[in-house]
Every structure is written in C-alpha cells, then in structure tokens.
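Exam review. A common question shows you a sequence with its structure tokens and asks you to describe the fold in words. Practice with the pair below. Do the first one on your own.
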Amino acid sequence: MNDELRSKIIQQLLDDLKAVSISPNAPFTYASGMKSPIYTDLRMTISNPVLRSDIAKGLSAEIKRAYPNATVIGGVATAGIPHAAWVAEELGLPLIYVRSKPKDHGAGKQIEGQLQADDQVVLIDDLISTGGSVLKAVEAVRKEKIQVIGVASIFSYGLPDSTKNFAEQDTELLSLLNYNQMVDYLQASDALSAEEVASAKEWHQDPWNWQK
C-alpha cells in the first residue's frame, strides 16, 4: 500500500469518522481493567463506503505483496467478515469465514465456505490487540489440515503480548496501520503535545504499568 493511501485511511479514521481516539490525559478503561490512551471502534468503518473501499484496496495490495500464493480469503467472526468479503472481491478469490466456536446445531460447523486440501488461506480481522481471537480462528482452519499462510488486519496495537502469541503459533501478521503511526500522525498535526506523545509511547512499551 502506498503512503498516500495509508495517510488517507489514517486521516479518515482519526479525523472524519473518529473510529480511533487517542487521549493520554483522559485515558480509557478497558473491560480487563487496563488503562489506555487509545480507544478503537473499527466496526464503524463498514458504514463509510469511501473508507471501507480504501481499506479493501490497501489490504488487497498488502496481501498481493506479502502472500502472492494466497488462494482463499477468510473472515474472522464477526468484525473481520465484511472486510474479508470486500478483499476477496477485490482479489477475485474465494471467501470463507470462521466462527468463534462451532455451531451447536446442524452440522456443527465452525468454518463456512469451501476449502480444498491444497488451499493457502489468509485470515482477516479488523483489530489485533493480543491476537487471541484471530489465533483461535487460525487453529480452527489448521485443524482441518488446511494451511494458513498469514493474518491481515486493518489495525494492530503492536503490543509485546501480540508479538509473542503470533510467534508461538508460527503465524505471520501484517497490518495496514499500527499504533505508532496513529500517534505520529497526531503529533505531526499538532493534535498531541510532546508530553502527550511521550505518555502515549510509554503505554505502548508497558501497558499494564502505565500511569501507575
């Protein structure tokens, strides 16, 4: 993905849609109890035709570059499914999606769509924090003896736990955007002071002990 498209997506997420908010001086509290300077609601992107098209183009370009042998695009339920559909359409590839757990009725499927033994799957999710949910989807596909060659996301926090979890699962991750790019954009546009930027980057290094 070229820098112009990346900047356009960041600007739309932060300024237009406000799907990402960074506020070191008024932090958010996650369900886990963690204090954080960032809050994301990337589900909002599906309602914006221009932004979702830009995201699909960006993800498609990165998947072509990093995984040229991909034969199937997979969406991770639920937030990854619409973006996977748009990317599959852009690339002209088959689509599957992976539930968070097998259905408790019917055939009990966890994976919907057709897979062949020699397929090479790229799974798509909207947001990566620790990677837990998408890596469960990776495991579900691999249990069917199908190769997952990588995971793609719109945004990744780039936290140490995520790096560790993907390495342990021997799974590659590519993300269109990351936390530091968001902070740098806000710094360049003077939306964050030098002190706020330093605080935001401190959180990224040690999230659980930030501001303690």
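Now try the second one, then compare your answer with the model answer below.
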Amino acid sequence: MNNNALGFGSGGDPVLAALVESIADAVYAVDHEGRVQFANGAAVRMLGYDDEAQLLGQPSHATIHHHKPDGTPFPEDACPLLRPRVTGEVVRVEEDWFVRRDGTFVPVAYSSAPVDTPEGRGAVVVFQDITERRAAAAARLRERATHASRARIVEAALDERRRLGRDLHDGAQQRLTNIALAAQIARRSEDPAEVGEMLGAVVEETQAAIDELRALGAGLHPAVLTHRGLLGAVESLTARTPVPVALDVTRERFPDLVEATAYFVIAEALANVAKHAGAEHTRVEVAREGELLRILVEDDGRGGADPSGSGLSGLADRVAAVDGALTVAAGVDGRGTRVEATLPARGPDLAG
C-alpha cells in the first residue's frame, strides 16, 4: 500500500490531501503489515518527528506503541490501534500513550478504522493529544477533593463547637455554679468556721474550673503561636516530647491560618511518633520554598503509619482545606515514617 492507494499523498486526490493536512487532529495510516504509510503534519509534530519520511515504512507498533509509561512492554498482539486490520472493527480508545521520537510519552485519545487496499486490510488512525484534557480533569478532581475536605472541616468544626458546649455545660459551667452557690452560703453564714470551710471549697472549685477551661482551650489556637510564632510554638511543643527531636524551623512569620495548620501537622505527627513508632529520634523541618511552606516530620521508628487512620486523614483534610497537600511515606531506606506537608505560604485562596 502507498499514499496513492490511500488517496492521502501527493499522488492522490489533491483536495483530500489538502483537507487531511489542514485538520488539527493527527491522521496516521498503516498497511496490512502494520507499517506506516501516511502521517499528516499534525501527527508528525505530535510524535516529535521532523518529516513524514522519518515515519514512512516503519513498523507502527515498534515505533510509537511498544512500551507503557511505567516501562513495561506492550505486546503487539494486544495493540488496539492495529486491531482493525484483523477484525475489521472500528476501535475507539479514550486514553492511551504513544511514544515520541525522543522516547517520551504523549497521552492520546484515538479511533482506528479499517481500510481496504489492494494489498490487504490496513487501518487509518485519528488521534488527539489529551495532555490539557487530563490536566483539566485532574484539576477538577483536586477542586472536588478540596471542597469535600473543606466540607468535612466545617462539619468537624460544628461537631467541635457542640462538644465544647457540652463540656462547658457539664464541667466548668457546673463548677462555676457550685462556686456561686458556695459564695452565697458563705455570705449568709454567721459561723466563722463554716465560712472558712466554704471559702476553702470555693478556692478548690475555682482552681478545678480554671484547669478544665485551660484543657478545653489547649487545642483551639496555642497562645504561643500568636506571641512567639511557629518556631517558638514548635520549641515549646517538642520540649515535652518523650522522643528527642532535632529542629530546623524557619523564624519567618506566616498568616495565622498557615502557622496554625503547620503547628497541628507537627503536633499530630509527633503524637503518632510517641504513641506508635517506637522511635529513638525524630526530625522536624519547616522551611519556605518559594511560594510554599514545607513541613517535614521524620522518625526512625518501626514505620507502617496508616494514612487512612482518623488522625492522619483528619490532618489531610485540615491541610487540604488551606489548599495544601499532605503525604505519608516510609522514611529513608524504608525505616520509620515521613510525614510531609506543603502549604501556600501566603495562605489559601479563599476567592473560590
């Protein structure tokens, strides 16, 4: 089969040749043996060649379809692109990969249709570069994931507010009520001993209420973040950890939401190390890299952290809610666990 037989080349119908050459889609034809017989300009450019002549006569599968992106070979007898030569069917593939001349891969969608020639049945393939389409789809998935994470954060915040309300009602509020009643009784009493006893109870109950309120406020927004920044807060946090922690934390200040998120990433990761890792050493790094703030917590423990566990999955939601990303992986040489988060250094884009 040749260009004249297909009708695409210079020896065929000039109108058809001009039409095929002018369209934006790549057009590519193979003969009954699977050898390239035609490639329009769009196909030549998409596959990284300088001229159609570099493709003509080459075995199609061995030239553009021989491997998958993960490096595994792609058997020719499983190639959908060439199947129409054998079965006579039209094949449509929404996502596949062709190999460029330089060995890189281009994601494509294509349809391959049989074409009868004097030498036997060949195929004509029309394909498109779907790089932008895949990027747009990935962006939509990220956006949906971010919105879902934010929804979970909002729901978690509402649950937390309800929990705080219950704790205040059942704990500190009840103690304050007891204090008020004891003070009233003491004020009405004329017995100095009873007054002294009641005032002693008031002092004890007041201290207990203070302790409960302090405990309730511990997880909301550490005051040390406001006054000393992320470095001071992390130094305060790690001063109490049972596992030695090596710190390399920037002194730069960031928006409150960014600092709070970074702090809770570190706090949750260190809590996991203390509870589960059996580690001897932990390392915490916080550094600005361009427009991103990078947080790393790595230990030398037994590893095996479960990213889907309630603590880490909740942490992933917290990070996603500020347009960040969280990864949990094995540490260096497969030992320990590496928790890494990247946050926008200027804070999330709340316009959307």
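Model answer, second protein: The longest strand covers residues 105-117. The chain has ten helices and ten strands. Full marks require stating both points clearly.
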